[in-house]
Amino acid sequence: MHDSLINHHAFLTILCMGLVTYLTRISGYLLLRNKNYPRLIRVLEILPGCVMISLVAPIFVTGKLSDFIAAILTILTAMRFSFLVTLIVGIGSAGILRHFLPMVLH
Question: Residue 42: which of 28, 30, 52, 54 has the closest Cα?
Fold first, then answer.
């Protein structure tokens, strides 16, 4: 069990974050499906961004150079490109940098 590639705590954390993200999306739909509250709708539209910030913010305090560089690349990509491109750059750069900068990670 200790040689598993997937850390059970990380897997549970990712699963819970996905569930929370899904619940925020579906609850907005259920609450507003027949109502017109423009201000509340705007707040619900930016909630997933808040969830993403909560995922990204800990990277800046870990002290890992590879994660810090990947976060900077992701932010720069997000300023110019769509969410999908940003996601691909973020995940790709984190994986590549963690592979090539293993001494800095630990």
Answer: 28
Tokens of 99: 């592979």
Distances in Å between the alpha carbon of 12 and those of 15, 16, 97?
Answer: 5, 6, 24
* C-alpha closest to that of 13 among 46, 58, 49, 44: 58
Indicate whether this model's pTM tops 0.85.
no
Which residues have a Cβ under 8 Å from the Cβ of 47 and sit 6 or more positions away? 24, 25, 28
Angle at the Cα of 64 from the Cα atoms of 61 and 66, rounded to 5 degrees: 125
Residue 90 near residue 77 (C-beta atoms within 8 A):
yes
Question: What's the pLDDT band for 87 if we cut at 50, 70, 90?
Answer: confident
Residues 61 and 78: their CA atoms lie apart, in Å, by: 20
